[in-house]
Design goal:
The protein has 201 residues and is α+β, with helices and mostly antiparallel strands. The chain has 3 helices and 10 strands; from the N terminus they run αβββββββαββαβ. It has one domain: Porin (Beta Barrel). Strand 6 and strand 7 form a beta hairpin.
Length: 201
């Protein structure tokens, strides 16, 4: 009897994504994001004198199950000394479709900025280079960001949207709940990006 219950429980866990997909409540999409320079409003003041080199591009993946959403995004760039920069974001939150024409979401999670230069890698927080021993160490030291998305459906597969990202002072290492909400200075560093997605399932 116990073996039968275990088999049924495992079957329910394994079949849950398939059931969600058949019910139309599961969605997996990949896409590209594009931001002008660092994406802040201050950068857009020089938009008229910009060129293609001023745009930064990255990859995104979004997973939605019912009204829960999990997003990941990453960008790779170059430093002035021909080093590599990597910015990765992992957020989780809520999203909801609006009359089958748009999807709005709000998520929260860490942004990890790494620089690889002269054979040495370091974590970057507020423009300062910080040594990290592992990925988990970088995760606990990195500041969390609040991310809002608004996507418009351009058919059954393609979506075009806008992404707002606001930094906060919250980190897992400090776990100060008073720093969960952005401060006035944080709002001035809001980043705006465009995103286009293709739904896979």
């Amino acid at each position: 009897m116990k073996k039968l219950l275990l088999v049924l429980a495992l079957s329910a866990v394994l079949l849950a994504p398939l059931a969600a997909y058949s019910a139309g409540v599961f969605d997996l999409s990949i896409g590209l994001n594009a931001s002008f320079r660092d994406g802040t409003l201050e950068a857009f003041k020089e938009f008229a004198d910009s060129g293609f080199d001023d745009w930064r591009f990255g990859l995104e993946m979004r997973t939605k199950l019912l009204f829960f959403e999990l997003d990941s995004a990453g960008k790779i760039g170059m430093t002035e000394n021909n080093g590599l920069t990597f910015s990765g974001l992992m957020v989780a939150g809520l999203s909801e479709d609006l009359f089958d024409t748009a999807r709005i979401g709000v998520c929260f999670g860490p942004v990890i900025d790494y620089v690889l230069e002269d054979g040495e890698s370091s974590l970057v927080i507020d423009g300062n280079h910080v040594q990290s021993e592992s990925f988990m160490d970088a995760l606990t030291k990195s500041r969390f960001n609040l991310r809002a998305t608004l996507d418009f459906f351009l058919g059954p597969v393609i979506r075009l949207g806008i992404v707002w990202t606001v930094p906060t002072q919250y980190t897992i290492e400090e776990h100060d709940m008073n720093k969960l909400l952005p401060t006035g200075e944080d709002w001035t560093r809001t980043q705006i990006a465009l995103a286009i997605h293709m739904s896979l399932v």
